[in-house]
Please model this.
Amino acid sequence: MASRGKVRNAAESETGQDAAGLGARRAAALAVADLIGQERPPALDEALAAALRAERLESGDAALARAIALATFRRLGQIRRVLADRLDKGLPVGKPRLFSLLATGTAQILDLAVPDHAAVDLAVRLAKADHRTAGFAGMVNAVLRRVAREREAILAATEPLRDNTPDWLARRWVSAYGPERAAEIARAHLSSAPIDLTLRNEGEGQAWAERLGATLLPTGSLRMPPDGAAIPDLPGFGEAAWWVQDAAAAIPARLLGVGEGERVLDLCAAPGGKTMQLASRGANVTALDRSAPRLERLRDNLARLGLTAEIAVGDATAYQAEPFDAVLLDAPCSATGTIRRHPDVAWTKDESDIVRLAQLQTRLLDRAATLVRPGGRLVYCTCSLERAEGEAQIAAFLARNTRFARVPLRPEEVGGRADLIDGEGDLRTLPSQGLDGFFAGRLVHQG
Model:
């Protein structure tokens, strides 16, 4: 958790509209309210983007709004319990705006380096400014002041797996990884994810690490220091020397081992980090995705980097083409491995999503198998912690596709990190290892 500033009055004006940081708090509260209580809420990134457009915030306030919203979902279970314990009538029902003001205020007090008085005072101002919450301004003030007084005791009693992980998800992690490792995963989710970079030319890793003040990870990615410069302002951005990509997400494309001139298919390719990796190795890449807007982003990134790939819009479960030398399937999944950077995932997904997505992954894997030439390679990966979307998919696929065999990973392929390879030889990374949660299995078509 970030170090905290001293309590001070950050808003001298009583008009509310002129108070420093008010717009950031309003945007964060609006985004949180958009997700609370909906059966199929939008992703937090989408809700935040809409709120930030409405507020027209400067970059600093936009970053604060994002930090507040992320902190709210990072500790949402704990925040609900803390508020329920301090409200005589329990949590407000059917009042998402009121709950979001209380929740974002509590998140600032528990998790962010902002003064307590600013968190409380600006939440009260926002409550007074909205007719739906104006009558509760006194309650907002009293509850948040109490949370601030009791902050240290609240934090000392925190148990992340119990407090900040939905019960259904905690049960699955305990079953898959055991109670100790499940607790480590939940604890890692209280910290934000680092920024990692993938180099266009990985042979220049040490040079770029020194130039950027970054750490060269064993797997080949660069890890940026916290609180660094904005990405577009960093050396190498304009030169297209690297792009932002979590270190775990960069591993699967490397496992294909593509060479110059090979025909490679990237299924479900957008937003394109893996496509760029494959193209930078000289492969003739076809990038397929069903989302035309997301592929436009991929097209723009390729142009910025001076790389080329064939872009195709279509349904990967029905795609047909001449077999490829190698196929990468980064399948749609529950994304539970990315909770450090997308904490809303834990609260906007449920077990039915995993069942539905696992069925889609099975269809995608079977289609991908038809697109690999004899002797060719297939890598299947998901950014999920759920074995149903990773290990179980590969086991079931091999049981029904005898033409394919697993090619176990070797420690030297992941920078000597044998702890990233499971007992079957597949990739399994966890947030408690400092990476996004990822699974990848490598297969070969035996002909």
